[in-house]
Each structure stands twice: as structure tokens, then as C-alpha cells.
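Standup notes, protein team

Yesterday: finished cleaning the Salinicoccus siamensis set.
Today: DUF4396 domain-containing protein structure.
Blockers: none.

Input for DUF4396 domain-containing protein:
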Amino acid sequence: MLSIISWIALSIGAISSIIIIVDVFRHPQHMTIMNIVWPINGWFFGPIALWTYFRWGRINAKNLELEDKRGNGAKVFVSTSHCSAGCTLGDALGVPIVALGALTIAGSTLYAHFTAQFILAYIFGILFQFYAIYPMNKKAGVKNAFVSAIKADTLSLIAFEVGMFGWMVLVNLVIFSTPPAPNEGTYWFMMQIAMILGFLTSYPVNWWLVKRGIKEAM
């Protein structure tokens, strides 16, 4: 039953991503990186991503003249989505690297996943943040944009990984006697849940970063 539920959830996520991809091709975002962010969010947030994209994301389409009536909560939601997408991409890419390489740390595959996924999530998180900051102020230079990206994304990324890794610990040590493997749908369904929890733990940190002026609401 759990396997069936997993494949249903994964299919809903994939369909949500495809719908968003089709729409951003028709209505590309002003900020190019968001054309990647929204489909990634569709994978783990499913219908919620669709609702938020059409309600809060499409406002920023280049070829549409839509009035921006979003409140601060919605803008911080989009900022958190941007951070979460970079983390999600890095985390997802880390899984096959660890699995195919049969990597372990201190004899633990879980520790290897945590290490590989954090490193890749940090790299992609900073890159996603860089491509949000640099196009808006190219005169400041690449170096300053990277420094600003690190300041804006580091705490947010750590908060995301706390939620995600916390769930992975429960999955591997509490919920399952034999945890699902990366070649099973259940594994990726657990990852979807991990991404949602990561988003939830990252949201208040993004709100604080925006309030302190360290990060801009998107």
C-alpha cells in the first residue's frame, strides 16, 4: 500500500512540474533562475506548488502585466522556494552518487548521504542565489555577488537541511526496520516529505533574513 501511495505522490509531483514547465516556456520569468525553481518545487510540493506558482509566481512573467498584490508572507514564501529548489536539486543528485559509489562514512551509508547531499545542496543553493543577485546588479561584480549569495543562503540552507535530515533519521532509524533503497518509489516519496519539512524549517529563517535586510524578499 505504501508503495502505491508513493508512486501516486511521485506522479502528482511529476505532473505538477510538467504543468509549470509548459507555462514558464509560454510565460518566462523576469528572473531567469525562477524558470528552474518553480518546476523543482512542483516535484515535492505538487498541487501546492501549482497554486503558489499561478498565484504568486506568474506575477513575475516577462510577457504578462499582472498587478503584484502579494503580502510579505507570500514574498518570503517565494524566497524560501528559491532556496529550497537549490537544496532539493543538490540533495537529489547526492543520492545516486552515494548509491552508485557504495560510499560510507564511519561505516554508515546515512552519514555519506548527509555529507554528499549537504555539499551539493550548498553548492547549488549558492549558485541559485548568485543567479538571483548578480543579474540585478552586475556593476557590483561577480565576487560581491557570490559573497552576498553566501550571506543570504547559508543560514537558510542549514535550516532546510535540519528539517530534511531530521526526517531522514526518522525514516532510517525509527519508521522502517529496513529503510527503502534509492531504487524504490518509497525512498523518493520519503524524500518528497523531507523536502516539504525542509521548506517548513527554512521559512522562518528566510523571514528573519529578509527582516534583517540580509536577503531580499522575492
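Follow-up from PR in the comments: The chain has a mean pLDDT of 89.
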